[in-house]
User: Fold this.
Amino acid sequence: MPATPATQSGPYSVITSLRDWLTLAKSAFEARLAERERQRQADILARLQTPWQLYWGEPYGIDLKKWLLNPVVEKLEAEGNAGDLIVDVGSGAQPVTRFFQNRPGRKRILVDVAADNNGCADEWRIRLNAEQVGEPGALSFRKALARAGKFLAPAPGAQPIGADLMVFSDLLNYVDFRTVLHGFARYLKPGGRILIVNLPMRGNQSLFSEKGLKDNRDLLAFLEEERFEIEQKSFPCRAADVTDEAEELIVLVARKDGLNS
Assistant:
C-alpha cells in the first residue's frame, strides 16, 4: 500500500514539512497582527475616555491650524486689525495666537482650564473655565481678572484695557457658546474683533456641552443679535458643490459694533 504524503521520506517529505511550517508561521503572524490591531483600538478608546485636560489640546494638530489660520492672520496683520492685546480663549497646549507677529507693545493673554497662571513679559497664561466669564462674582473669575490686570499693569485709576482681538479655536462645542462669547465680548474694545475656528460635533463628544455649538447658523444668528459685523467667513473644507453651512468647519472674523457694550 503506498505511503501517504505525511509518511513519505525524501524530498517530498521535506517540501511538505516546509509548506506546513510556512502555513503555521503565516497563521501566527496574522494572529499577532490581529492582536496589535485590537490593542491599537483599545488604546484609542482609552484615550477618548481620558479626561480632556490630560491631553490638553493634543488632538488638534498645529499644522492644520496653520493652514486654516495663516491667511486670516496675514490679512488681519496687513490691515492693522490684530491690535496690541490678543486674548486666546481655550488656548490649549499650542496657542494659535502665536501665529501673530511678535512686536513691541503687543501682549497675549492665554485663557485655559489647564493653564498654569504663569508667563513672561509679553504673554501670560491664566487658568479659568471659560464659562465662568458668565459668573462675575465667582472667586476664580475675580482672580483671573486680577491676574490679567497685573499683567497689563495699567496706571492707577486708569480705565481697564480692552482687547483688540479675541480668538476662540475649537472651543465652542465644549461650552455654552452664547455665555462664553457674550461674556468675553464685554472685554473687547469698541471695534475690536473675534476670530472663531470651529467645526460642530468635532472632538471628544463625551465632553461636549449641551449648550455647545451644534449648527453654524445658530452662531451667525447670535453674532447678529450681539451686533457683530461679519468681516470674513469661509468654509475651507467644504466641497465646491455644497452650499449648506450648518455643520461645516467655519473660520470667521467678526467686528464688534462700536456702540456695543
Summary: Confidence is low (pLDDT under 50) at residues 1-7, 47-58. The first strand starts at residue 85 and ends at 89. The CA atoms of residues 135 and 141 lie 7 Å apart. Strands lie at 85-89, 107-112, 118-120, 123-127, 163-169, 188-198, 228-234, 250-256.
